[in-house]
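Sample entry copied in:
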Amino acid sequence: MSIIASIPVLKGHGGITLSAAPEGLFLERPREELTIPGEAVGRVRAEGGAVAVELRARAGTTPVVHRVEGVSEAAATAFADGVNSLLLEPDEEVDGAALVVLRTFRTHWQRRHLRRFMWFVLVLLGAVVALSVIAGVTGGAGYAVGIAVIGLVTAVTLGAGVYEFGQWAHTRRVREHGVREFARPANVPGTYLYVDTTGTTRTVSHLSHGPYLEVAYDPKDPADVYTLKPGFMQRLSISAGTFLLLCGLGGLAALALVTVEALAEGGA
């Protein structure tokens, strides 16, 4: 499907964007993007302040429809008319949903892991502030400054180390207990495609030039995918995480020593 530049870009509610390109349509949602090839599109309907992209479906099956709400009626009409004028002839043997590629930028687990990491660091910083105040009252301003500096470095390094080890443990679990699949190369270098148990085609990035890539994904979140063999960057990440964790533990020991010394100074 050849798309002309006059077709408008639609911006709907919830940060959803629908645009046209020579190869088809792009539906962008928060944290994910759908690539819909031209041959997968059955028709586009303008429904007032909304646009419905109906995919091709085999005879006797219900077509999949993607809707974008909250667009202007004029833009919706122009978009639908422009795309429909360039569609291929109907083909009842084409399953449009099977041609759509879903790219996820951040999985559910990654969002939860990041939130836990932020709370962990905030708790550490809160503890550092409390220790700094106690040391300042009992041992003097020097101890308060020392604990603040050591505590800040400790919170950052320990938090980063715990984050990396959490990522490593999760990746290992998915590799051992997840669903295994073979991903095929996409047209974009470093990108492979795999099909999950729901029939959705998804992307995974990996610097490889092989004819296929063996991956494993979490059946509860098929976008949470990893290669079966750790790459160089993954090994580097766990090495850096180990180093940061050791630094963080050393910082905790130093905090304990300085705090005890401040309390001793205050009791003297």
